[in-house]
Specification:
Helix content is 41%, strand content 8%. By secondary structure, it is mainly α. Strands 1-2 form a two-stranded antiparallel ribbon. A hairpin with a 2-residue loop joins strand 1 and strand 2. Helix 1 packs across helix 3 and helix 2 crosses helix 3.
Length: 104
């Protein structure tokens, strides 16, 4: 579906920002801050971000909006299901015997 003219201008501007200002994995500014920087409303920005998410250029989560690698966008199933188990980091808690001792 084509975007209205103002949204199309913003879409092009945000795409340019993704190429020039942000690297893959970086977080975009918050919606209110980014809308202020672009001189538009949040509703308009959300429509543009939704389009970019459909094109797998960004990933929106409750933690923020992340830039994806423009050369190899993720598949729809990976976007919806999260990363595969092999790609997830493994965290281990290792007990430390000196943890309870007070250090001056």
């Amino acid at each position: 579906m084509p975007l209205p003219s103002r949204q199309k201008e913003l879409y092009e501007k945000v795409r340019q920002d993704l190429r020039e200002k942000f690297s893959p994995g970086m977080t975009l500014p918050t919606e209110p801050a980014y809308a202020c920087m672009l001189g538009c409303g949040r509703t308009t920005l959300r429509k543009v971000l939704a389009r970019l998410e459909e094109e797998n250029l960004i990933r929106r989560t409750h933690r923020g909006t992340f830039v994806l690698d423009l050369r190899s966008p993720i598949s729809r199933s990976e976007k919806n299901m999260g990363k595969s188990e092999e790609e997830r980091p493994l965290f281990m808690l290792i007990p430390c015997t000196q943890y309870t001792e007070k250090v001056d």
